[in-house]
Each structure stands twice: as structure tokens, then as C-alpha cells.
Amino acid sequence: MNYSDIVMDHFMNPRNVGELENPDGIGQIGNVNCGDIMRMTIQVKDNRIADVKFKTFGCGAAIAVSSMVTEMAKGKTLEEAVRINQDEVARALGGLPEKKLHCSNLGTDALKAAVNDYWRKNGHPEKVVPLEDEHLEQEAEPQHACCHSPERGNGQSEGRMAS
Ligand code: FES
To answer: For 41-89, what is each residue's pLDDT tens digit?
Structure first.
């Protein structure tokens, strides 16, 4: 499968990996088809994404997508952030192979889920937006076993994981 240089760069050197302490919003979703999981934590200041971090248990494309989505989201208003769509992410990555396009949905939907979580917690349930794809919104526990378990390692060098 051919990946662009940008995809490879974000896969090899993912930006904003990890988890924010005391996040304002948490989005954790799973892909019903491949079982991959993505978790995003956001910090909100003046209605903008002040900081965002991700953990992804997924394929290389999903890791590159997560990294790119966090870069695109930083500094955006919450309303702008939930409008980032899979096509924009795929374009910013220099394209994704056809079979991997669905992976870009995981990134945009994890971000939407985190913003939705913020809106729900802060008295704005009317602002909640639907996810783009058929993803399972998971209960956002502080730590998820698949992302933190020592047996799984703690980096993509030990598996297909960025955390
Ligand atoms: S194969 Fe599951 S997100 Fe890419």
C-alpha cells in the first residue's frame, strides 16, 4: 500500500501523542469494522481548542490521521473543530489509499466526540453534533486498558500503537 510522505512523517513522528491532565472533554470511539480505538482529550479556552492530545490503538493510517487532526484542531473554535471532515484530513495528509479512507473518519469523529463531551458537561447539549461514521462512542474512562496496558508496550515501535 502506498502512503504519502506526509502520512509516513505523521506515522513515524506523531504529534500531540498522550493524554491531557484534567481535560475539558474526552472522546473515545471504536471502529465497528476493524476494532481500532481512538481517544482524544481536549482543553478548551475562550471557546477554542487550546490543547489536544490523542492515543490510538490502530493502523498506521489511523495514527497519522490522529496526529494530523490534532494539528488541524489546535486554535480552532469548537464549532470550527467539529466541521473538520474526513476529506480535509485526507487532503492534508497528501491523500490516503482508497481502502484507508475510513480511517480518517475515526480521527474527525474522535474529535467530535471530545467536543460533544465538553458541550454536554457544560450545559450545551443542543450543540452536540452527530458522528460522521458508524462508530461506537465508548464510555470515556480515565485510562483505557488497551492504550495503557504494559503488556501492550507504549509506542508504535512495539506494535501498532501511539500512546
Ligand atoms: S484499519 Fe482501523 S482505523 Fe485504520
So the answer is: 999 999 999 999 999 999 999 999 999 999 999 999 999 999 999 999 9
* Residue 62 near residue 106 (C-beta atoms within 8 A): yes
Give the SS3 label for residue 77: strand
Q: Does residue 61 have its Cβ closer than 6 Å to ligand 1?
A: yes
Nearest ligand 1 atom to alpha carbon 35: 2
pTM listed for this prediction: 0.84
Name the one residue in this structure whose C-alpha cell is 486498558: 145
Q: Which three cell numbers stand for residue 129?
A: 453534533
Instruction: Please say if 146 is a catalytic residue.
Output: no
pLDDT tens profile 13-49: 999 999 999 999 999 999 888 889 999 999 999 999 9
SS (H, E, C) 88-123: HHHHHCCCCCHHHHHHHHHHHHHHHHHHHHHHHHCC
**Percentages helix, strand, coil for the chain, rounded to the nearest 5?**
45, 20, 35
Pocket of ligand 1 contains residue 37 by CB under 6 Å: no
Name the one residue in this structure whose C-alpha cell is 480535509: 88
Q: Walk me through the domains of the chain, giving residue ranges and CATH numbers.
A: 5-139 (3.90.1010.10)
Distance CA 37, CA 138 (A): 9
